[in-house]
Amino acid sequence: MHLVQILLPRADNTGRPFGREDFDRVKEDLASRFDGVTAYLQAPAEGQWQDGEQSSKDEIVIFEVMVDDVDLPDWRKRRAELNPQDRVRSGDKGSLGVVRRERHAL
To answer: For the whole model, what pTM was predicted?
Structure first.
């Protein structure tokens, strides 16, 4: 089994928050596709990164699903679709949804 995490910013590049309905759509899609999802929406995590001398922060929400096999083309497609209303530029660090996986033996 693989645990797949989807990390999404709570706000766009201008600082305008995404609506709850944006995250609800992601949650419903994942629940439908993978027969369940865990969504961490109420207590956002914080990401931080350095770009030379400049430090940037981002509040994120996290979605998790368990899968038997990881379909990389499907996840790449999903990642590209996680750009609600073109408010997040993919070239900005920390601004586009990140999909990562971990392998777990059950």
So the answer is: 0.74
d(CA 64, CA 51): 28
**Residue labelled with tokens 């931080």:** 48
Buried b (16+ CB within 10 A) or exposed e, 36-74: ebebeeeebeebeeeeeeeeeebebbbbbbebeeeeeee
Contact 94, 51 (CB under 8 A): no
Average pLDDT over residues 66-95: 68
Q: Is the pLDDT of residue 64 over 70?
A: yes
Nearest CA among 32, 12, 26 for reference residue 78: 26
pLDDT at 60 over 70: yes
Task: Tell me 95's DSSP state.
Answer: -
Q: Are 53 and 16 in contact (CB under 8 A)?
A: no
Q: Output the pLDDT for position 94.
A: 41
